[in-house]
Amino acid sequence: MVTAIRTNKPINEAEATANSTLTGIMGRISAYTGREVTRDEMTQSDLKLGPEEIKFGAVKKVFTIPVTGAPPA
């Protein structure tokens, strides 16, 4: 990566990242179902692992900032 930056030659890791993610999902589904899962089965699956609609906007969550020495909230 350092060489790519110094030589101004971009690195495209999209395929490796996609394969790694698919492997992780396959492991998760295999662990949940207790059976072997194939790559073809996963690429043809209609399984949805995310929200129905992805959109930008406000997050409805209260974030607390920890303070050293203060009791936990």
Shape: extended
Mean pLDDT: 86
Report, as a whole number of angstroms, the end-to-end distance.
Answer: 42 Å
Please give the share of residues in helix: 40-55%
Number of strands: 0
**Uncertain ranges:** none
For this entry, give a set of tags:
single chain; 73 residues; mainly alpha
Indicate the topology.
Layout: H1 2-7, H2 14-33, H3 39-43
Question: How would you sum up this structure, described in words?
Answer:
This protein has helices spanning 2-7, 14-33, 39-43. It is an all-alpha fold. It has one domain (1-73). The radius of gyration is 20 Å and the shape is extended. The relative contact order is 0.08. The model has no long low-confidence stretch (mean pLDDT 86).
Q: Quick gist of this model?
A:
This protein has 73 residues and is mainly α.
